[in-house]
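Help!! Second protein's tokens look totally different from the first
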Amino acid sequence: MVRRGTDRTAAAGERRAGGKGVRPARRPEVRMPPTAPHDGAPLSPDGDYDGLEFRAADFAGQDGSGARFLDCALTDCVLDDTVLRHARLLDSVITAPRGVGTDLAEATLRDVEVTGARLGGVQLHGAVLERVWIRGGKIDYPNLRRARLRDVVFEGCVLVEPDFGGARLERVEFVDCALRGADLGSATLTDVDLRGAAPLEIARGMDRLAGAVISTGQLLDLAPQLAAGLGLRVED
């Protein structure tokens, strides 16, 4: 069961986001119903998983394309080369997932909390993320090209060379989050709060920052790139 953000939560978020100029992301508030342990069977394409707990499951190399996970808890699961294309993860909690090459292309994540992820090269191109809270952990080289992110919070995590090329980001917050070498080429940003990103490193797409808010200190750090993008020479 998921309870949508209350007025109090929204007000608190507005204060965090500075009130004026940027709308805060709505965080999911996931309240898990009682879950039953998964029977340990391999994932199956188009599988239907409802109210299950997956604990320390090894899904390496398995195919769960098109599967639906509703009110599920996934804890300490291995996701090396796991195929979850077009999967739907709804009203679920994912804790300490780890793996390389996890394929979530064109998947849907809605009202999901992810904590302590250790992932590399996760494929999320064309995916839809709505009311998703990613806390802690480190994600290397996530591919979010042409993904749609709405009401997404990255908090206390490290993102290494995330590719947001052609993606649409609306009400996305980076809170105490390291953003290294981000690619924003052809991305569209609306109410994106980057003030909590430290460091904030933009490898590509400086011209796509319209619709985002940054701090004065970040502006000074990015000034050389902004000047270069404008063809502006700075000389003393």
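Here's the second one for comparison:
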Amino acid sequence: MGNRLTQIATRTGDDGSTGLGDGSRVRKDHLRVHALGDVDELNSQLGVLLAEALPSDVRELLVVVQHELFNLGGELSMPGHELLATAAVAHLDEALAHYNTSLPRLKEFILPAGNRAAALAHVARTVARRAERAVVALGAAEPVRDTPRHYLNRLSDLLFVLARVLNRANLDGRSGDDVYWNSERLRRDAAADGAEPQ
């Protein structure tokens, strides 16, 4: 593993290259650097979400996810190394199953909206999808384990579910719900039931 940071402004990247964790250097537009950057952005976005009022169980889960994402980034920065445990994917599967049980079935697409915490979870979800796409692109060019890709796929699903959970958490004093896409089908169904669509 490369040396830990002792200074930030090294000027070694002025030539458009950056150092990886194994000491090698690549261009800053390398597929590996794109994947690393997207994972870093995702972790930063979770940091913003963690600045919100959250249910304690959701907070504890997201703190664990931040550490796992750091491991994922470390693995991407060192070609051939394994840092993200495969058990981390199973952990996300368990969280998905747990939080899904408390949610009503979706009858329509929902918008990435609601209270602030839920909206931030949706932003993190979209960044997770982009990070996943970057890891897929890297894997098409170089060997990459399946675990990072699986983890990001599962995490984006979990963040969608958590956004729904956070809209219902009532931490802002206003009990919320999903914000539904006002589709033609939803209007027809509401009209048939004699109700206004949400």
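Reply: Different proteins will give different token patterns, so don't panic. The longest helix spans residues 116-141.
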